Amino acid sequence: MIYKKQIDISTLNAPLEFNIYGRQPILEALRYGDSVKKIWLASDLSGKPVRQIQNLAENKKIPLFTISKNDIQKYVGSVVHQGIAAQISFNPFVTEADLETFLQSKNNPLIVILDQVQDPHNLGAIIRTCEITGVDLIVLTAKGSAPINATVAKTSAGALFGVKLHQTENLLAVIDLFKRTGIQTFAATTHAEFNIYDADFKRAIALIIGSEGIGVRKNLLSYCDLKVTIPQIGKINSLNASVSASVILYEALRQRFYSNIRNKTAGNE
Questions:
Q1: CA 189, 157, 82, 120 torsion: positive or negative?
Q2: 96-258 homologous superfamily
Q3: The whole model's pTM is what?
């Protein structure tokens, strides 16, 4: 499902409050900090993840209410909630005023810019990969982006609670700030002069991933230091936004942390 509702710019980078569902997102929300305010648990629920949630909730003194599965539906709607829901309140955002200081605090930052990614499932999957691969900041456009909601939290498997975000109504200004602070901008596109294996991801990089429909917008491409593409030998000539982000970010991870490690499968020398 594609969300076309635009974000009210007056709420940019403001704290978030909504209900989430699913065992893994709630478990990760509990592990990452103090975002969980209350939990609703189905009366017949059991298992190791449930015990972990109960123990963490008890240690953090978070109210836990035992109710029926049907009553949980009232808090999260008609979704597969796995018998658990939670009310959260948290702030993952770096404000415009703090952005430059945040960037300067990072050594060789890796940033992902999402140019109007509209599917919350894609957004959640990208956030999950960003957390795993050590991305320092995810930049979202104020207009045309999927809202941060329970679907994003569920699809990210709770990684939403472990990343830093920045929303902007002026993406070009943010890219200009990156340039001034020594961060190069790479755009992922199907037609580019470099494939990802020829590009240098070891430096400070902001990677732009485009929307599901049109990719990276043309006005942004002209601002980029480099355009990169994912090599393909099959007949299908495109990957969706979340898969593309995963492929490129894992190449960045390889270059940054594993490029000097000898191939242990090559045999003893």
A1: negative
A2: SPOUT methyltransferase, trefoil knot domain (3.40.1280.10)
A3: 0.91
